[in-house]
């Protein structure tokens, strides 16, 4: 959560508003402190503009929170007297919770020391705490359905940090059939059966838990597109250049007598002059990379794509990020502007129609690929394509 400093103090009896902690799924969260006892609470307030369904979820979250009691699930607190009238902007109840001063797990992951993953000891503590919390919730027949680093907060205990699950706004109480079908949660951590709107059980929390643990170990989420940070066309050239720059002998460093040109910076200039086109194949969700010449046409590029994908050139439709269709006789070099990565989309013309949204891709086998799953690699707006 992003914390916002206060410009003017606000009080309710002995309670003083200290800061705005941020915004959760359904409402704003603020930190209050009792001037007499030093006790602190986090107060969550429902937003007025929520739909009726989400207002029901809000009330359900409060009901669930008030009956839970586990060290690794954030505890509900009594709302201080008079605060409902002072703070609430609607007739929905407030939710008071214990305040955890360590922030959320996302903040912890963003620390420089954790950019390539957390320390082993920290991961083992996380595993113990969150598995205990999930076991408890599931024993109460509750599925969290939105487990992610932002919904795990840290509290300093007597001997170590304690992880606590928060934000039960999407929690679901299991009915007698123990199967649910509603679609909720955060896309990066959603189990496949949720995305496909199939019936699901508590195992959706296992998927989310496994995904966030993977991220804590490695520093990145699994299931990203198969796109290397450095294109394979550049890898060999850059490896040779780096070997040149990192030679042990000062006299040999930066020079290659067997290459033309031999000077390291002239060789680098040749690498930088390469014009690369990045093509996102919508049928396989893979990125293809081609080095092109100044006079190469789009038609020539389509033939190369056909060879790699078995998609006939006649059935290809190449789109710029703005949605413009490239003509076959146009120069392909217009797609490689300086160092900006421009993506194309290969589509089967007879199957796909386009609209002006940018939310979801549909695939022939009924699977789905969300723009969010590409966000770590693709920095352009994406076009919504429908079969």
UniProtKB/TrEMBL annotation:
Keyword match Iron-sulfur: no
Compartments, record wording: Cytoplasm; Nucleus
Sequence ranges assigned to domain Ubiquitin-like in this UniProt record: 270-338
The protein, known as: IkappaB kinase
CDD domains per record: Ubl_IKKA_like
EC number per UniProt: 2.7.11.10
Gene Ontology CC: IkappaB kinase complex; nucleus
Pfam families attached to this UniProt entry: Pkinase
A Gene Ontology biological process term: positive regulation of transcription by RNA polymerase II
Catalytic reaction annotation: L-seryl-[I-kappa-B protein] + ATP = O-phospho-L-seryl-[I-kappa-B protein] + ADP + H(+)
Listed InterPro entries: IKK (IPR051180), Kinase-like_dom_sf (IPR011009), Prot_kinase_dom (IPR000719), Ser-Thr/Tyr_kinase_cat_dom (IPR001245), Ser/Thr_kinase_AS (IPR008271), Ubiquitin-like_dom (IPR000626), Ubiquitin-like_domsf (IPR029071)
Predominant subcellular localization, coarse grouping: cytoplasm
A molecular function GO annotation: ATP binding
Enzyme superclass (EC): transferase
Domain Protein kinase per the UniProt entry, residue ranges: 15-324
Record bears the keyword Nuclease: no
Keywords attached to this entry: ATP-binding, Cytoplasm, Kinase, Nucleotide-binding, Nucleus, Phosphoprotein, Serine/threonine-protein kinase, Transferase
Organism: Cyprinodon variegatus (Sheepshead minnow)
